[in-house]
Inverse folding.
């Protein structure tokens, strides 16, 4: 009887460096599912998710070319007093994203992969952590996160700092994780931490 594939949830705040951890896992033969990429896929027309969003929030969130008008949607769901709208957005999108993720996990299991990493910034909020066998939370110092966000998104320090300040505190991620990695930029330390965690969990690379 083949061993059950391990599903590893990978989460943490913006700028923490989850992608670098995901890359280390890929180097060890563990597929990496990026839920941000899955989200972009499920809202690409023709899209059942896009249709449901239009029904919920109005046809004006659809651009003339049939794609999602992100600014129009953001105006309806983000901001003071729009918590209910934001919750409805998450309810709809999480449903489609997680269905896609489950399908991808099933494909990797059928291929005989020993583990798969699901990179999800909203892992706990979506409830998908309950479907994971293990969870790794990736954290980094505030100043490092701000610098990474500024470089990645080409935005000002003020805007990057406001994003960081708006996110959940570190203990939100660390308290529910099976392992925590502090990724402050030391690649050799990151590599050894990933290896140590996988060894502790008896995950052998393929």
């Amino acid at each position: 009887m083949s061993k059950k594939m391990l599903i590893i949830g990978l989460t943490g705040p913006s700028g923490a460096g989850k992608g670098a951890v995901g890359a280390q896992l890929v180097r060890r033969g563990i597929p990496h599912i990026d839920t941000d990429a899955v989200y972009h896929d499920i809202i690409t027309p023709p899209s059942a998710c896009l249709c449901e969003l239009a029904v919920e929030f109005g046809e004006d969130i659809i651009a003339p070319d049939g794609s999602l008008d992100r600014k129009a949607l953001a105006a309806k769901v983000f901001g003071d007093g729009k918590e209910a709208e934001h919750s409805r957005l998450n309810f709809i999108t999480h449903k489609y994203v997680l269905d896609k993720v489950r399908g991808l996990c099933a494909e990797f299991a059928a291929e005989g992969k020993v583990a798969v990493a699901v990179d999800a910034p909203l892992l706990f909020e979506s409830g998908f952590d309950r479907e994971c066998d293990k969870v790794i939370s990736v954290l980094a110092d505030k100043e490092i996160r701000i610098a990474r966000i500024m470089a990645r998104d080409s935005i000002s320090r003020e805007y990057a700092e406001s994003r960081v300040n708006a996110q959940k505190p570190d203990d939100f991620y660390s308290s529910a994780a099976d392992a925590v990695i502090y990724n402050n930029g030391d690649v050799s330390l990151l590599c050894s931490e990933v290896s140590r965690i996988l060894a502790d969990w008896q995950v052998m690379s393929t």
About this structure: The CA atoms of residues 174 and 206 lie 28 Å apart. DSSP finds ten helices and five strands in the chain.
